[in-house]
Every structure is written in structure tokens, then in C-alpha cells.
Design goal:
- This protein has one domain.
- By secondary structure, it is mainly α.
- It has six helices and no strands.
- It is globular.
């Protein structure tokens, strides 16, 4: 399994991907102990039709706390977020959860682009540009998370 400490954003995206995979192919849960355990969590948590594992939600909460700290403490990060905000607002308005956090919107964007690419569908230049900005933002949060975790 992806290591949360090494890159928390990749960890969340990996969990989301596994959730979708196990929903589509539940018989594959027997392919490995890791998949079996995750499938059991999905069933126990009642998210077989949709939603995210508590593991992913907790990690997202940790990322959101760091994001808020960075907004307060880092002028460059705040400026980066201000440039990205209009695109995130448009993205959120097109979802069934327009009140999702900015961090979740960034992760959702990356996940959707990943799915488009897996389907060999085109990603517009505008979306690719926003994806790059969101990736950079998530990299900063992930690096701060890693630094915090290794300092313990």
C-alpha cells in the first residue's frame, strides 16, 4: 500500500482508486490480503455504492489542517491558492458537493484527470493547466506533512 507519510496526497488518490476498483470488481478482493481488508472496510463502513473510507477522510482532514496553516503562514502559498481559487470554484460548482474543501477539490480534479487519461480521453489545455497548479499545491502540503511526520 502507498505510504501515507511519504506522500499523503498520493495515498488518498490510491485509496480512492482502490475503492472504485473494488466496487467495480468485488471478486478481486480475494486477490490479496490488502484488497480483502480494504473491501471489508468498505462493506463495514457502508460505502459499497459511493463515498470514501474513513482512512481517506482522516488523511484528507490532516491535509486540510496543513492547508489552513499554510494559508496563514506562507504568503507564496496564499498567492498560489488565490490564483487557483477561481478554477476550483468552477470545479466545485459542477459537482454534487459544491461545498467541498479546496484540498478535496484539488484531489478530485487530479483523480478525474487520471480517470480521463486511463480512458485515453483528451484533457483540455485549460484543465491541464489547472491540474498542474493543483498538483503543485498538493505537493507543498504533502512535503509539509512529510516534514512534520519525520520531525516526530
Amino acid at each position: 500500500m502507498k505510504n501515507k507519510r511519504e506522500n499523503i496526497a498520493e495515498y488518498i488518490l490510491y485509496l480512492w482508486q482502490l475503492e472504485d476498483y473494488l466496487r467495480a470488481f468485488p471478486a478481486q478482493a480475494e486477490a490479496s490480503p490488502e484488497l480483502h481488508d480494504l473491501y471489508e472496510m468498505i462493506r463495514r463502513e457502508g460505502i459499497a455504492e459511493g463515498g470514501h473510507l474513513q482512512l481517506a477522510q482522516n488523511a484528507l482532514g490532516e491535509m486540510e489542517q496543513l492547508h489552513l496553516s499554510l494559508l496563514d503562514e506562507d504568503a507564496q502559498y496564499r498567492a498560489m491558492m488565490m490564483r487557483l481559487q477561481p478554477a476550483l470554484n468552477i470545479l466545485k460548482s459542477k459537482t454534487d458537493r459544491p461545498t467541498m474543501s479546496d484540498v478535496e477539490a484539488c484531489l478530485t480534479l487530479l483523480y478525474q484527470v487520471m480517470m480521463l487519461r486511463l480512458q485515453k480521453r483528451e484533457v483540455s489545455p485549460e484543465t491541464a493547466s489547472v491540474q498542474q497548479q493543483a498538483t503543485r499545491l498538493l505537493q507543498i502540503i504533502s512535503r509539509c506533512y512529510y516534514d512534520d511526520q519525520t520531525a516526530l
